[in-house]
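User: Run a structure prediction on this.
Assistant: Running it now.
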Amino acid sequence: MLARLLVPFSFLALLLLPCLALAAPNEPTDAALVRHGREVVVRAQCNRCHEITGGLGAFKREMHCVNCHTWILGTKGKPDEIAKQRVDFPDWDRYLDSVVHFTRLPDLGTLTRRVRPSAVRRFLDAPHDVRPHLEESMIPLRLSGADKDAVVAWLASLAGPQVAPEEPAPAPESVDAARIAAGRTVFVAKGCPTCHVFGNVRFQPGFDAAFYKAMGANAQLAPNLRFARERVPRSVFVRFVQDPQSVDPRVTMPKLGVTPAEAERLADFVYAAAPELAGPPAAAEVPVVAALDRKVTFDEVYDELLGKICVHCHMDPATNNGDGGAGNTGGLGFAGKRLSLESYPSVARGLMRDGKRVSILTPGPGGQPPLLLEALLRRHREASRDQRRAFADHAGEGIAVDAAAPGMPLGLPALSLAQLRLVKTWLDQGAPGPAE
């Protein structure tokens, strides 16, 4: 199974990486802050998902979410390579069908060349969905304010003299309607809507959510440009749209032949036009989940959910070289709940809480759903923060994620109602084990 592609990372990180240290005698305060930031990033394992060019090397392929998934998908259409991998990984064909997420994520090493460090700091306090075509979302960070300050200082140090300046955003009312209209014309003419959205503004027929989904990797990292006002200094935006790689060599945006005058008009539109947002969302509705009128087996739940999604963070360390993932032995800044979902016996053992084993399959006090279902339902409450899909943009940041008890699956979209019904039915039937 895919879990066996992953090798220990959290345990080794704790053993081999230094604990946070105080500034050495006579060490400049800013240097100590930068060093602290790097240590926090290592502890939170940010480079398990992200590239951090110039700062940290990525985890080995087996331990790096994106690199592992791109490796698997890279064997598609290569019968000899697939046959080779089947020898060690009998479920390889299933991986080719089930690997969908974590194939592209932003590079953090060059981030502050484009984004103001102060905007990065605000994002760490209240992460929200900046990239509507990317289904993955930022996980909640269990960091102190001082830790976050240090992380931003370290990221800014990676940009050096090319760090984005803290210039104030221009007032929208300072741009007249004619310049905004001219900017919109350039925006469409240069093909910007092919990848980017701007709030809920509709530019052309056919540029809808289905279109962007079909664009796939070409549009995944394209941000919603209505956030440029708070994230990117206008002077950087003007340079970026003319020559993206001169600002950040790691971005994939092509050079579109934008003249200096056109760049100014694009900035007028992006920094002053109305993004046509919906009102702030009400508290997310937790779906009413009705049981199915048929028998549901553990194997069905495992194939649809536990073995496809959950096992990545809830592995059995005995079959994965001692590594149980963030939800079991710990990682990504989480201490781990000692919960393995890789087999029925381990699912039935439950998780550790206050030194005791607690079932995730039986109802809680007062008729509360079993912990397994409750965690899956909780993810729906977080959707207004983490799933700001194209043309469903809204004012406000949405419901915050509780870093102490985030919904599941972590960093991925909430389960569909059909998947939830499958889990609920199995639980209502007593969560029976496999027949064999």
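The chain has three domains: 2-162, 172-272, 298-428.
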